[in-house]
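Q: Hi! First time doing this. I have a protein sequence and I read that you can turn it into a structure. Is that right? Here it is:
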Amino acid sequence: MGWIKVVGIGPGQHKDMTVRAIKALRDSEVVIGYATYINLIRHLVMDKEIIYSGMRQEVDRCKKALELAFLGRKVALVSGGDPGIYGMAGILYELAQNGDINAEIEIIPGVSAVNAAASLLGAPLMTDFASISLSDHLTPWEAIAKRLEMAARADFVIALFNPKSSERRDNISRALDIVLKYRCISTPCGIVKNAYRKGESTIVTKLGDLLKQNIDMTTLIIIGNSSTFIAGGKMITPRGYVF
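A: Yes, that's right. Below is the predicted 3D structure, encoded as C-alpha cells:
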C-alpha cells in the first residue's frame, strides 16, 4: 500500500506554501489536482506523473488517488488553500470509509483563502467569525440562508466564499438582504480577488456599496461586525483589549 498526502498549496505561490507541503510534493510519485492548481505548482512537480481534471471532478480525483495508493504509489492530492476548508480532505476520507479502503492518508494544511484575504485587508478576523460559502451546488440555499441569518444576528464577522458565478448571479444580493437586517449600511467590508495570485485586488468599502464592486468566483468577501472599523484604509475588528 502506498500513501496519499492531501497537500494544501495555499494561494499557490512557492513562498506562500509550507515546508511540509513542498516536501510532500517532492516525495510523491504522482500528483493529482484541479488543472488551475496544478499549473500554479507545475515548476515543483515537473518530474512527477501528473493527473489533472476540471472543476467539479473532485470525487473522480479522490477515487484515482485511492486507486493508485492501493497499487503502492505515493500520491500527492493537491488542494487549493487548506484541504480541510472547502477542500479535498473530507471527500477523500468519506470515499475511503465508504469503500472500506485502509489507505495511509495525511493532510498537509495550507493557508486558507480567508487567512490570505484577511491579511490583505488588515485585521478583520480578530474575534469570532463565520465562514459561509454561497455556492448552492452542494448545499441547499435554504441552509445557506439560515446560516447567514444566524451569523448576522449573532454579530459574527462573516467571510463569504464563492459569492458569485455565471450560474449563481443572485446569491450575493440575496445574502446581502439577509445580512442588512442586522447590520447597518456603513458596516466595513472587504473584497479581495485572487489573494496572493496574479490579478490580485483589494477593496475596503462599506456594506451598502458592496454590490457596486466587481465580484466573481475568485472573490472572497469579509463583512465586519458591529465593532469593526476602518483606519488607514484597513479593516480592524477589536479583540477587546483595554489600552
